[in-house]
């Protein structure tokens, strides 16, 4: 029987392929001439992974384990990025700061808190602790922002950034967190998802406006607007999980970034 639409696994595979294009552009620019459309395709990747993750939090039987996997991924990549930047610097002068686990963790932490607050309200139980839990990424952002310029607090700030994901300093920042929580709150209603995602994409598009350059700046200076083309894939979602292989995605993400970075560093020396 022919399957209708796309299941979660297929959406994640599409996101993974597009992500590879994006990282090829970022890592190998300066080694090869990599066309801009590589990273334009990559703008679809994070929204699709976020879409799949928000749905994952809806269906998972153990949201705490789900959160812990993302947290371990976040911490692992913080140390991994530190090592890779120290021993295999990018030839183009950039640094590896990729850590989508931080963004996914913040999104899922907020979703988990919303879920628990809803349950507590139905059962007439206190839920203040979940409001506090939801605000942890906000508190960590405030602490980091207020202390990062103080050299004497360097290790404290670094410790917080390595172990406590923050709203302001996660990959993609507030916009991607709003995207994830908003997609969850749309409750898989395709009309709501379409309206919400288009409005957010238009907002991102408008944020790229530079008055010194003009309207052209919204198309070229901030290509994050290309994220709008992820919407058709979301609307094709058939609410099916598909194949498992969850650990494949957790492993592939850091592995391909570090392998690409090492290759770029080695090739640039010849």
Automatic annotation (TrEMBL):
<feature type="transmembrane region" description="Helical">
    <location>
        <begin position="247"/>
        <end position="267"/>
    </location>
</feature>
<feature type="transmembrane region" description="Helical">
    <location>
        <begin position="160"/>
        <end position="186"/>
    </location>
</feature>
<dbReference type="Pfam" id="PF05857">
    <property type="entry name" value="TraX"/>
</dbReference>
<keyword id="KW-1133">Transmembrane helix</keyword>
<keyword id="KW-0472">Membrane</keyword>
<feature type="transmembrane region" description="Helical">
    <location>
        <begin position="127"/>
        <end position="148"/>
    </location>
</feature>
<feature type="transmembrane region" description="Helical">
    <location>
        <begin position="9"/>
        <end position="28"/>
    </location>
</feature>
<feature type="transmembrane region" description="Helical">
    <location>
        <begin position="193"/>
        <end position="210"/>
    </location>
</feature>
<feature type="transmembrane region" description="Helical">
    <location>
        <begin position="96"/>
        <end position="115"/>
    </location>
</feature>
<feature type="transmembrane region" description="Helical">
    <location>
        <begin position="66"/>
        <end position="84"/>
    </location>
</feature>
<protein>
    <recommendedName>
        <fullName>Conjugal transfer protein TraX</fullName>
    </recommendedName>
</protein>
<keyword id="KW-0812">Transmembrane</keyword>
<dbReference type="InterPro" id="IPR008875">
    <property type="entry name" value="TraX"/>
</dbReference>
<feature type="transmembrane region" description="Helical">
    <location>
        <begin position="34"/>
        <end position="54"/>
    </location>
</feature>
<feature type="transmembrane region" description="Helical">
    <location>
        <begin position="222"/>
        <end position="238"/>
    </location>
</feature>
């Amino acid at each position: 029987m022919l399957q209708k639409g796309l299941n979660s696994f297929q959406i994640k595979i599409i996101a993974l392929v597009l992500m590879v294009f994006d990282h090829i552009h970022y890592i190998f620019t300066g080694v090869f001439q990599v066309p801009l459309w590589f990273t334009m395709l990559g703008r679809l990747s994070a929204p699709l992974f976020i879409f799949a993750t928000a749905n994952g939090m809806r269906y998972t039987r153990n949201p705490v384990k789900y959160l812990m996997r993302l947290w371990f991924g976040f911490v692992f990549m913080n140390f991994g990025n530190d090592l890779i930047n120290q021993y295999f610097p990018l030839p183009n002068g950039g640094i590896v700061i990729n850590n989508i686990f931080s963004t996914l963790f913040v999104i899922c932490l907020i979703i988990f808190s919303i879920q628990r607050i809803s349950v507590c309200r139905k059962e007439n139980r206190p839920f203040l602790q979940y409001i506090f839990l939801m605000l942890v990424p906000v508190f960590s952002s405030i602490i980091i922002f207020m202390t990062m310029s103080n050299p004497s607090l360097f290790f404290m700030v670094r410790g917080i950034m390595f172990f406590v994901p923050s709203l302001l300093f996660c990959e993609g920042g507030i916009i991607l967190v709003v995207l994830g929580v908003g997609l969850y709150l749309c409750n898989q209603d395709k009309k709501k998802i379409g309206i919400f995602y288009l409005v957010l994409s238009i907002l991102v598009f408008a944020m790229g406006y530079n008055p010194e350059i003009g309207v052209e700046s919204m198309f070229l200076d901030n290509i994050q607007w290309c994220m709008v083309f992820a919407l058709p894939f979301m609307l094709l979602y058939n609410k099916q999980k598909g194949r498992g292989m969850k650990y494949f995605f957790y492993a592939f993400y850091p592995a391909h970034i570090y392998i690409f970075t090492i290759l770029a560093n080695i090739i640039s020396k010849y």
